[in-house]
Write the structure tokens for this entry.
Amino acid sequence: MTNSKYLSGKLIEPRRIESGMSVVDLVDGTFQAYNAARLREACHLLTRKMLEEDVTVGITMTGALTPAGLGMSALIPLIEAGFIDWIISTGANLYHDTHFGIGLELRQGNPHVSDVVLRDEEVVRIYDIFFDYSVLLDTDAFFRKIIDAEEFQRPMSTAEFHYLCGKYVAAREEELGIGRKSLLAAAYEHAVPIYTSSPGDSSIGMNVAAKALQGSKLVFDVNADVNETAAIVLDAKRSGGKSAIWILGGGSPKNFALQTEPQIQEVMGIDERGHDYFLQVTDARPDTGGLSGATPAEAVSWGKVDPDRLPDAVVCYLDTTIALPILAAYSLDQHAPRTPRRLFDRRDEMMARIREEYDRSERNEAVQQAAREHHDTTLARDR
């Protein structure tokens, strides 16, 4: 037998799967290889490093997760445990999340039913999730009504918009007596900022656009979104902690979370290294050139991930609807709740920090101009 260092790994010797086995025992005892092993590594990265008290955890969401109930089953418990500090989501996930919070129904269905028949019966389908067409109309009406309020009549970041929406959804849940069903409401309660990288690309954005034709002053401030998300990451580092990005799927939310580091380093010229922890669940391949399959190693070349932290990066090539419940159950079992960071309440403070550092940066045009003027003055004096 050789003494190769490559044979130093643990023996593949799984436990027998038995009745009453816990999620933790299943993951640690039987997930031995392939993407099952990557999911086990993800569970360990999450619970042993990402959820330490000094780590700020941002999560990104693509795909129709909330209509499948994953907001209620997994994401809300994670927020309540203090395991999610900030979020970047597609608008669609937040729109469909609102159905539950305002008392509307989504049902399990058969994906093989004729869509022509469903259209005739006014049934809308998201693969095997069915709901009445009126669910869309009622949700549209809810958003159009609340954004008529005076507090919405101004430009704002998508985080502030979603925080205000969450307040109204939480009030509707209380009025209906249905408990906490909406991710928006849970994020409002715990001051978890939620950003949308493409705010016009959803039914929420469509309704905001329609109201603009009627004189609404609500406008999404995408510059604020870019700067606030970068400020969150910089604050995590400058406070002596670390930054973790947990990616569910990929797409625009993935890049929007990861571009915070190039915004800090490349654009603003502030000394930084990249995110410390990277956990992604995706079904996309890296060799097609699509962002959703882009690996953490590739992200290093952009300054998005700290090169010294690559061992703390895990990619699971899995269906998020399977991986997320397992990750949530494992982490809630294996890690004590954390104190919520309530980052929404600290936006002004974090923006002041990044503005101060940018004001001193050599990449800042004002600093460059002052340096040129100083140089010219010195030259003139020396003559």
